Amino acid sequence: MTKQQLFEQIQKKRSFLCVGLDSSLDKIPQHLLKYENPILEFNKQIIDATKDLCVAYKPNTAFYECYGKKGWETLIETWKYIPQDIFSIADAKRGDIGNTSAMYAETFFNAASSDMSFDSVTVAPYMGSDSVTPFLTFKDKWVILLALTSNAGHADFQLQEIGADRLFEKVIKTSKTWATAEQMMYVVGATRGAAFGDVRKLAPDHFLLVPGVGAQGGDLSEVCKYGLNSQCGLLINSSRGIIYASQGEDFAEKAREEALKLQQEMEQILIKAGLV
Question: Which domain, by its residues, includes 213?
């Protein structure tokens, strides 16, 4: 999916919502345990209930890898179930020496070898350009680079000053030489608030994947105040706040209700910004 195609989906659905599929056996409704693959059934019902309200799905691969072979099978089948016109994100946070990163890229991008071909993968930049560039060799695929995250420990490194820049600013400045805004996005946590203004000075045209709205306390209006650009430029992720809205048999219906609340709020933001 190209940047323009993603923006067209945002305009069509009047939404820039990403639903995080952080699905765990100990959190999904217990009545689903009767199914042969409870997590896959859960994911399918969540996708069916929200696919007209969101423009992206983001399975966090840790929630699948922990179940071994069956977990990988579930991740593959979940990817296959995501509609092709919805942006798919493998939230894997990979990044290693070049030949290892190349294998990670094959894992998430090459359906011929892995049965998966996500539109994008999250990547850690700590090891530098040769750990990221193998992901960029795949046509029409995206790298979503960790920049300024929503976790409490982000300040341990990301805010440390490196000369005139903080580390997250150095990451953005340097990585912009590796790929354009047509192939690279950045992860910026919703709990960072006004820091979106600093990010936008460095990356005015890039899409930003924004976790932390909802359960982690991020404020959508504040994120949009500083982060919105001429093509929206934001994918706002909500995971627990949507998928675990209910533990009952109505879980999919309740997930839809929560997704609809965010979509309606996003629609008003897009209208106000003149983007729809």
Answer: 3-273
